Amino acid sequence: MDMSDPSISFLDRAERPRLVYHHRRASAERAAAPTLVFLPGYASDMTGTKALALDAWAQGQGLAMLRFDYAGCGASSGTFEDQALADWLGDVLALIDSVVSGPVVLIGSSMGGWLALLAALARPQRVVGLVGIAAAPDFTMWGFSQEEKMTILTEGRLERASEYGPEPMVTTRRFWQSGEGNRVLIGEIAFDGPVRLIHGQADADVPWQYALETQKQLRSNDVQLLLIKDGDHRLSRDADIALLIQTVGNLLAQIEQG
Q1: pTM score > 0.85 for this model?
Q2: Hey, where are the domains in the chain?
Q3: One of 22, 69, 87, 233 is an active-site residue; which one?
């Protein structure tokens, strides 16, 4: 990322690492529309295929959009292994509170889908819609074997080979315990706005059945689940991106029509 890019901004906080974000403001014609806020997945950042494609579409539509890197990820400050799920939720809320005005639609990929649900519960007056892309709520509960959980608890960290890069995927005891303390599928998810969940049935990382469980636990009656039979976890193919953009566009149109 080019840190000299004038569209890149920084959020400095006394107690937490500096966050790097990109905030595209709305055109005058779309000033009343909700701001799109993209929440990346675990160890991901704001320069992923889906985030950039949505941002380019938002620009063409005159829509406001916020992309950012969690603390310890991408270009933001901080050490990755020092962060917990609750810390990253705090990053999301800090940006919503200080950078964006008005209503927001949260678009969460994988772990970002979990954070979107938590942020919606924390800011019910601001969040008017949710889109989950291979959303992974509560993955600290179901995403690790009992042996792996014991390794996390006894050794303080777990390394697993990553399909998305040469570096291993690290999970710390701090993150795992924070995840267990912020589970949302254990009861009703008290969000009443429209929700769209997109999930691939060939997802090897997040079984699509958890999308059904999320749909079931959401209090909202306006929840639609789009299953893609051959879709993987990334959902970054051209057809997947087109479906995502169509889904976000239709959701915004519904919200704006009231």
Answers
A1: yes
A2: 8-139+187-257
A3: 233
Output DSSP code: residue 84.
-
Residue type, 83: Q
Helical ranges in 73-138 per DSSP H? 85-98, 111-122
Distance separating alpha carbons of residues 228 and 73, to the nearest angstrom? 29
Domain 8-139+187-257 has CATH 3.40.50.1820: yes
The pLDDT-based confidence of 163 (bands split at 50, 70, 90) is confident
Pairing label, strands 195-200, 169-172 = unpaired
Active-site entry in 109, 110, 199, 240: 110
138 is catalytic: no
Identify any residues that bridge with 104 across adjacent strands, giving them in sequence order. 35, 127
Question: For 108, how many CA atoms within 13 A lie in the half-sphere containing its CB?
Answer: 29
- 27 catalytic per annotation: no
Tell me how far apart the alpha carbons of residues 198 and 228 are, in angstroms, rounded to a whole number: 8
Decide if 203 is catalytic.
yes
